[in-house]
Specification:
Elements (H helix, E strand, L loop, with lengths): L1 E7 L4 H12 L4 E7 L4 E6 L7 H10 L3 E4 L10 H38 L18 H18 L1 H12 L5 H22 L12 H25 L1 H9 L3 E4 L13 E4 L8 E4 L8 E6 L2 E4 L1 H4 L5 E3 L4 E2 L4 E2 L4 E7 L5 H13 L7 H27 L4 H14 L3 H20 L2 E3 L2 H9 L2 E5 H5 L5 E7 L4 H11 L8 H13 L5 H12 L4 H6 L3 E8 L3 E8 L2 E8 L1 H6 L8 H9 L3 E7 L2 E9 L6 H10 L3 E5 L4 H11 L3 E3 L7 H10 L4 E5 L5 H6 L2 E5 L4 H6 L2 E3 L5 H36 L3 H4 L5 H36 L1
Parallel strand pairs: 15-22, 15-24, 22-23, 24-25, 25-26
Antiparallel strand pairs: 1-3, 1-4, 2-3, 5-6, 7-13, 8-11, 8-13, 9-10, 9-12, 14-26, 16-21, 17-18, 18-19, 19-20, 20-21
Helix pairs in contact: 1-2, 1-11, 3-4, 3-7, 4-6, 4-7, 5-6, 6-7, 6-12, 7-29, 10-13, 11-12, 12-27, 12-29, 13-27, 13-29, 14-27, 17-18, 22-27, 27-29
Length: 799
């Protein structure tokens, strides 16, 4: 069982680690992960335990933070007013933070001018009443008065920091609060002593206390604006759903039909009929009842070209109707829609942690206590060495501020959020962050043939007719055009095949029916040429049989495979050469026989997708071994493999045996990515290290997949591999820079280089460096978008 909580008060990796540790201590908790960027706590626990959500909230509270159970209502189910209210609240918070930051900077700039300006060789102009030399007390009090407003604007850091200390879970705010307050209190103490000794005016640190807080506030403000961009994938998806739809009540009964009217989206139920005008967004999932149009599905599938839609075609909510008028029947609403599932999918992924993040979690969990210890030890050493109090305060403040582990907490989640969001915008849904890491390690890509490499929509390739079929077909030719000498043999063969296949749901039957319709054959044609069937029978695994009524005679009509012909003792030698040729080219064969005589051979092919060959070649260039796995006959599979350039073919594999093939490859040391679209692929998708389900495939396959390719193209596998490599690179860069800031900054702040080189980090610069570390980490994650586009463009150019 899983629950998601919103946690308030977290500001760094130490915070998230404290929350996780507190929750994991509870009995029955399997896993607890905090996403610092989204402020979400994802908890997985045994539903058999008596633990409640209230107990989890209490555990978070004991750690010094507040938590609330995330509303069960998903963002896509909210109405427009709720969404707008949420956005307005967020906007108000940002504006408030901006005002406080402006005030902090205003007073800090004046404070630095007053305090630092008098230290220059040529002091900056200042009212004589505040002269540092003539009236040092006034000079000190002015700095005190300028510092107090900054402390007020940054009050949240003190509240959170000391609250965390109270709960024995010190965090970044604790370090900032202690460091800045130490500088302020020490300066305040010296201010009172100035009346006894004016030289104390040179050791004031008011500007350090204020500037540290102002720099931290600036960093947090910029960080907040930047991290908003990392959630843009979800935000943009939520905005795809329009607040209203045009309902057509009574569509199924013209006598009851009412004029179309606009209604709120939440009022729509499954079965309602909606009117979609050109330029409007399709509000929910459904099927086309009437009309034709081109629909732009790029925002969901990543497919750049609009898709033609007509009666019976499916529609995805959130896509754009570009041309014609459509009437659609709603098939899914609320959380069941494709768009809602995608949003839920992304939110779940972004709430989890990648294995690479564990190092940062381990370090950040003990980092703050260690920093406090370093600050204390540094202070003791400098005091014992005879350093003055103001020097010790400077060291302690710098150590506490420079060591804030904000960047560590942001290093991984920001990159994962950008990476998974970028994947979603390109029609690739990644179920867990672990998959991002595993994708990079993939060595073998196993591809199902039908619906993965091929379109999964068979079409008639050719019709071959025997020499002695003319006599059998003459009867029907006379019905079409008695005066015409030549016989339109293919049309009659298709008409016979259409008559027997029209009620079958088999893909091959569908191909024959579609070809017949293209050639103008329909029910009226059958009536015109007097084709009448009775006793139609489905011979499972063989084909179809029926009795054809011809001038009061009943002739057996058979359409099926070679096994059916052999069973009925119908010779196929007349077309054996053509059959072998078509099989060598990967076609499926259907024979048509009338009255025990072979009339024709219909070759059916499943066309290869436009991008399959290029995508497979790109995967091979990336060093991946390509294996074609199919239940089709060896000749057909081998032909397709030769066209696309697969390295290995495993054919005639039963559905239940596909998982065993994957297992054998894994035992040989391969890290396997399996791509498929059918129910029979589900066991193999689960067995594979990474299961890639085609988004237009079965729901079972999609549930079994670790990644879902919404546009059902193999090229998305290449894109996922590229994105995985780039995301991991950015995460490693982020962790490197986060550790580097602290590794270089801590010795400088502690004064390790001061005795020999005279180098000592000032609290002001420490605050600036800490703020920049967080900003650089988030900015580097956002840079992933640009890197990916360039890489993708470079790969596409190579094609």
């Amino acid at each position: 069982m899983k629950e998601t909580f919103t946690v308030e008060g977290m500001s760094c990796a130490a915070c998230s680690s404290a929350v996780e540790r507190s929750v994991r201590k509870l009995e029955g908790i399997k896993e607890a992960n905090v996403n610092l960027t989204t402020k979400k706590l994802s908890v997985e626990f045994d539903s058999g335990q008596s633990i409640s959500n209230d107990e989890i909230i209490k555990a978070v509270t004991k750690a010094g933070y507040s938590a609330s159970l995330e509303a069960e209502q998903k963002p896509i189910e909210k109405n427009s007013s709720q969404v707008n209210a949420s956005l307005e609240d967020a906007s108000i918070k940002v504006k408030q933070l901006k005002k406080e930051l402006f005030g902090a900077w205003l007073f800090t700039i004046v404070l630095i001018y007053v305090s630092m300006g008098q230290m220059l060789a040529k002091p900056l102009p200042l009212f004589s009443i505040f002269s540092m030399h003539a009236l040092p007390m006034n000079f000190a009090v002015l700095q005190l008065l300028l510092t107090i407003p900054v402390l007020y604007f940054a009050r949240a850091y003190f509240y959170r920091g000391f609250k965390a200390l109270y709960y024995r879970a010190p965090n970044m705010d604790s370090l900032i609060a202690i460091g800045s307050l130490a500088s302020f209190v020490y300066s305040l103490y010296l201010t009172f002593l100035i009346s006894l000794d004016a030289s104390h005016v040179h050791n004031l640190y008011y500007e350090s206390a204020a500037s540290v807080l102002t720099f931290i506030m600036t960093g947090k403000f910029l960080e907040a604006k930047s991290t908003d961009k990392t959630t843009s994938a979800i935000s943009s998806l939520i905005k795809l759903s329009p607040p209203k739809a045009t309902l057509v009540a009574g569509y199924d009964d013209p006598s009851l039909m009412l004029p179309p009217r606009a209604v709120q989206l939440e009022e729509i139920v499954v079965g309602n009929v909606l009117l979609i005008k050109p330029g409007e967004t399709i509000p929910l999932d459904g099927i086309v009842l009437e009309g034709e149009s081109d629909v732009n599905e790029a925002m969901i599938t990543g497919e750049s070209m609009p898709v033609s839609k007509e009666e019976g075609d499916s529609l995805i909510g959130g896509t754009l109707n570009t041309s014609g008028v459509l009437f659609m029947r709603v098939t899914r609403t609320g959380k069941d829609t494709t768009l809602a599932k995608i949003i839920s999918f992304i939110e779940e992924t972004q709430g989890k942690k990648a294995p690479i993040a564990r190092l940062a979690d381990i370090v950040s969990g003990i980092f703050v206590p260690v920093v406090l210890a370093i600050a204390l030890v540094s202070a003791i050493i400098w005091i014992l060495s005879g350093a003055e109090a103001h020097f010790v305060i400077r060291v302690v403040t710098s150590v506490l501020v420079i060591a804030c582990p904000c960047a560590l907490g942001l290093a991984t989640p920001t990159a994962i959020m950008v990476g998974t969001g970028l994947a979603a915008s390109n029609g690739i849904l990644i179920r867990t962050p672990e998959v991002l890491e595993l994708l990079k390690k993939t060595t073998a890509v196993v591809l199902d043939k039908t619906g993965t490499i091929t379109k999964g929509k068979p079409v008639v390739k050719s019709i071959s007719i025997t020499k002695d079929a003319q006599e059998s077909l003459r009867f029907y030719q006379d019905k079409i055009n008695p005066k015409q000498d030549s016989i339109d043999e293919e049309k009659i063969i298709l008409a016979l095949a259409y008559a027997i296949e029209k009620n079958s749901s088999h893909p091959i039957a569908h191909a024959i029916v579609e070809e017949a319709k293209k050639r103008g054959i329909d029910e009226s044609t059958l009536t015109q040429i007097n084709i009448l069937l009775e006793s139609e029978t489905n011979l499972s695994g063989f084909g179809l049989s029926a009795n054809l009524i011809q001038e009061n005679k009943r002739l057996s009509l058979l359409v099926g495979n070679e096994r059916l012909m052999n069973t009925e003792k119908i010779a196929v030698d007349a077309l054996a050469e053509e059959a072998e040729k078509q099989q060598d080219e990967g076609a499926s064969l259907m024979y048509l026989a009338l009255d025990k005589k072979l009339l024709a051979l219909i070759a059916i092919e499943d066309e290869i997708k436009e991008d399959s060959i290029q995508a497979i070649q790109a995967l091979k260039k990336m060093g991946k071994k390509i294996i074609l796995l199919s239940g089709d006959n060896k000749k057909s599979a081998a032909y397709v493999a030769s066209l696309v350039g697969a390295d290995q073919v495993i054919a005639e594999v039963l559905p239940e045996d596909k998982a065993e093939v994957i297992k054998d490859l894994q035992e040989k040391g391969e890290i396997v990515l399996m791509a498929g679209d059918g129910i029979n692929d589900s066991p193999a998708l689960v067995q594979a290290d990474i299961g890639a389900a085609m988004g237009k495939g079965s729901d079972t396959a999609i549930e079994a997949g670790d990644i879902i390719l919404m546009n059902s193209n193999i090229s998305s596998i290449k894109d996922a591999l590229v994105l995985s490599r780039l995301t991991l690179r950015v995460i490693k860069q982020n962790l490197f820079w986060a550790f580097l800031y602290n590794t270089i900054g801590l010795p400088l702040a502690a004064g390790l280089l001061y005795p020999r080189f005279g180098l000592l980090l000032s609290p002001m610069f420490a605050g600036f460096a800490m703020a920049m570390s967080s900003i650089s980490v988030v900015s580097n994650a956002l840079r992933l978008r640009l890197i990916y586009r360039r890489k993708k463009h470079a790969l596409d150019k190579k094609k």
